[in-house]
Amino acid sequence: MTHHPDHDVELYRDDGTYRVFVDLPGFDPEDIEVTWVHHRLTVSARRTGGPGSSRVFDHQVNVPRAVDDDGITATYREGVLDVELPVDRGADPPGRRIEIEE
C-alpha cells in the first residue's frame, strides 16, 4: 500500500533511513527527476499537456545527516514518489559542539 502524504512533501526518519514522500498525482515516472547533491534531495517534475497547458513541480529537501549515496532508492506508485535515503552510520553528523570558554 502506498503512503499518501497529507502535504505535498513529507520527510520522516524511520530506523536508520530517511523517507521522503512527494505527492505528484498526474505525472508519469519519466516526467520526474530526482537528484541528490550535498545533503539535499531535489525533486523536479514537468508535464506538458495540450496547447498552453503544463504542470511544473520543483522542491528541495535538506537532510540533516550524512546519507549512503549508493543506497538511495526511489519508487513511484499511485501518484506518490517515495525516496529512501539510508543514513551513513559511519559518518558523523554535520556540525560540531562548541565549547564555551570561561
Automatic annotation (TrEMBL):
Domain SHSP: 1-102
Pfam families (UniProt xref): HSP20
Top-level division of the source organism's lineage: Archaea
Spans through the membrane: none
UniProt family annotation: Belongs to the small heat shock protein (HSP20) family.
Name of the protein this chain belongs to: Hsp20/alpha crystallin family protein
Organism, as annotated: Halosimplex pelagicum
